[in-house]
Amino acid sequence: MSKSLNLFGGAVGGIGLLLLGAYNFADRNVAHFPDKPQMLGELPAPIPTPAAPVQTAEAPAADPAAADGGLVGAAHADNGDSKGLRFGLGREALPEEIAAWNLDVSPDGTGLPVGTGNALDGEPIFEDNCAACHGSFAEGVDNWPKLAGGMDTLDRDDPLKTVGSYWPYTSTVWDYVHRSMPFGNAQSLTVDDTYAIVAYILYMNDVIEDDFDLTQETLPQVTLPNAEGFIVDDRAETEYTVWRTEPCMENCKDSVEITMRATVLDVTPQEEGAAADPAPEPEAVAAVEPAPAAEAAPAAEAAPAAAPAAEPAADALDPELVAAGEKVFGKCKACHQIGEGAANRVGPQLNGIVGRAVGGLDDFKYSSGMAEHGGVWDDATLAAFLANPKGEVKGTKMAFAGLRKDSDVAAMIAYLKSFSQ
Asked: Which segments constitute the Cytochrome c domain (predicted)?
């Protein structure tokens, strides 16, 4: 029992010493409040404007051999005033200082620097600086912006707004790329690199050819497809007055007509009894029944006579069309090879593709959609795939958005036929 009391007494004594030390040292560094503190009076009145002009101090002459950052230092030289109050600070910006940040480019080309570039030069530059987000063909990666495609989609519920489908002026493309791209390293592109990248983007939208040289003179002359698609917003004059009329609340029409029911969407409860929609007449169902097998037999017998004509020989191809197709094939060279020594790359080699089974190369790993597609690469299948790859073969890994012009599709097929085996 005495041992427990000793332990308890020691603990109580230790706590007491701890509290005593805390009390003595807690406020040691806190200043005491004065007995008669000085009270704050009214704020001073504004400084009056002096009757005589204020003599501003002149900064000492800058050392020409000073370290870099002369523009920053010069900006702090004094010679100015602000709203009538002279503080001896600031000065007018020099023309070269304004030029360092004034990068405005107008639709007529005003402000474009001297330079040149084409799509052939722009492809590797685009691949190095832009493809990580925008894709090798400007088709966009994941949710990053798409820069090509989207033609004829602006009137849809989910339009695809790209340089080719939406933008009105080429000058805004150049200005944005030069000012803000690439992401995370803005204004690192040279003037010629910017011209080359813009040329590649325009080429992927079928606006210019791959060897067209963009310069400060030719770029404003390139017209984008949606240049005339923008109008002045006149809704305040043409629509607002209609919205502000007194609304009709009753007897607004002579009769009410039900034009559609939401039964397809399972919104309107199904009616019962005589009011329900009548079932289709038996005669209407019979009208769409297939014809008897006996009647279909003559058509089946006549089918061999309607067999498609054989594909024209390679030597019968139009040389001019083949040459045009070779030019169009430039859009495919990043992933495909064709001709002597062609090998599989990102995409399969294309020698003898016309007449070959879809997904038919044994030494290339196709996507599941391509491998399971079936069929043969004939003119119709090639035309549909070249115009809309992802729409024709679901799940294809080919990122190219497709050829927009029918003439390019025909030329490409002719070029591929020239390498048939």
From this structure: 117-205, 320-420
Quote the CA–CA distance of 135 and 231 in Å, as a whole number. 32
Two tokens at 402?
């497709």
237: in domain: no
Total number of domains constituting the chain: 2
Which of 128, 117, 123, 135 lies closest to 330 in space, CA to CA? 123
Is residue 108, in this structure, part of any structural domain at all? Answer: no
Per the listing, tokens 């620097």 go with 113
Distance, in Å, from the CA atom of 385 to the CA atom of 413, rounded to the nearest integer, reads: 11
Q: What tokens does 238 get? A: 């043409």
Instruction: Select from 106, 107, 122, 114 the least CA-distant residue to 199.
Output: 122
The helix (run of H) or strand (run of E) holding residue 215 is: strand 214-215
The tokens for 416 are 């591929």
Boundary (domain end) residue, out of 167, 191, 221: 221
Please state the separation of Cα 169 from the chain's center in Å. Answer: 16
**CATH number of residue 393's parent domain:** 1.10.760.10
| pLDDT for residue 38 | 60
Distance CA 404, CA 162 (A): 14
**Half-sphere exposure in the Cβ direction for 139 (13 Å, CA):** 13
How many residues belong to the chain?
Answer: 421
Domain that includes residue 342, residue range: 319-419
Given 167, 192, 221, the domain boundary residue is 221
Pick the closest to residue 174 from 129, 107, 128 (CA basis): 107
In this structure, is residue 396 part of a structural domain?
A: yes
> Does residue 55 fall inside a structural domain?
no
166: number of Cβ within 10 Å: 18
CA distance 366 to 348: 8
Determine the pLDDT at residue 61: 56
Model pLDDT, residue 344: 87
- What pLDDT score was predicted for residue 254? 80
How far is it, in rounded angstroms, from Cα 246 to Cα 218? 54
pTM: 0.51
Q: Using CA atoms, how far apart are residues 94 and 75, in angstroms rounded to an integer?
A: 9
Write the CB contacts of 421 (distance below 8 Å, at least 6 apart in sequence). Answer: 351, 352
CA pair distance 143, 149, nearest whole angstrom: 15
- Which residues, listed in sequence order, are joined to residue 219 by a DSSP beta bridge? none
